[in-house]
Amino acid sequence: MDTAVVLFTRDLRLHDNPALAAACRAARHVVPLFVLDPAVPSNPNRDRFLAESLADLRASLRDRGANLVIRTGDPVTETLKLASEVDAGGIALAGDVSAYARRRERRLAAEAGRRRVQVFPAVTVVPPGDLRPAGRDHYAVFTPYWRAWQSARMRATERPPARLSLPVGVRVGDLPAANGPTAGGFAGGEAAGRARVREWLRSIGAGADGGEYGARRDDLAGDATSRLSPYLHFGCVSPL
After folding, report:
1. Range with lowest mean pLDDT among 14-23, 181-190, 208-217, 229-238
2. Which pick of 156, 170, 172, 224 has the fewest CB atoms within 10 Å?
3. Which residues, listed in sequence order, are joined to residue 228 by a DSSP beta bridge?
4. Taking CA 154 as the corner, what is the angle to CA 50 and CA 226, rounded to the nearest 5 degrees?
5. 59-69 pLDDT, tens digit each
6. How high is the pLDDT of residue 208?
7. What is the pLDDT of residue 225?
8. How many whole angstroms separate alpha carbon 68 and alpha carbon 74?
9. Of 55, 58, 74, 78, whose CA–CA distance to 66 is shortest?
10. CA angle at 169 for the pair 83 and 36, rounded to the nearest 5°
11. pTM recorded for the entire structure
12. What spatial distance separates the first Cα and last Cα of the chain, rounded to whole Å?
C-alpha cells in the first residue's frame, strides 16, 4: 500500500499505538489525522488538556519526519475527504466502546468504498466482553473476575515508529489554542503522561508514602493515587 490514513481518537500517543504501528508496516506514506468534532461536549479543562496533547503529538511526529493533520467537522466526513485527497488505500483507527465511537466505526466501514478500514485495540487492556462468566454478560463478584483477569491473554506492546513519511502537499492545519491555566497541574500529552507514570512507579517502590499505596489508594485528596486518569482517558499513555 502506498498511503494510509491513521485517525487518532483516544490514542494520542506514539508508544504502543497498534493502529499507527500497523499502518507504518503496511504503507509507504502514513497520514496521522485528528478531527476536532464540534458535536463533542467540551469544557475549558478538557479543551486545554486536549490542545496540549495534540501539540505534544504533533511535535513527536515532526521529530520522526511527519506531522499531525488537523481538521474540524464530522470525523467520518473529514477522514474520508482526506483519504480521497491523498488517495489512501486504507484507514486505521483505535476501537472504542462508546456508542459515539461505535457509530463512527460503522459509518467509516460503510462509507469508505474501496478503502479498507481496520480497527485496532488501543483503549482497553483486553477486548471488551472477553472477560465474562459462562452464561452471563458480566461478573457480579470481584474475586472470580480478578482470577479471570489474572489469566487473560494480553497482546504484545507496539514500539513507536522510528520514521514516518507524509505524502507531498498535505495541508496540516492549525492546532487548537491551549487557552486558560493548566487544570490541577495536569499538563496534557504523551511526554507528560509517561513522566507521571515513571514518577508514580518510583514512588510505589520506594517506601514512605508510596509504600502505603495499598492503604491510601482511595485517598483522593492525598498524593497517593497514580493521577493517570486524564492520560488514560485521552490515550496519552497506553492502558497496557
Report:
1. 208-217
2. 156
3. none
4. 45
5. 999 999 999 99
6. 46
7. 79
8. 17
9. 58
10. 50
11. 0.90
12. 29
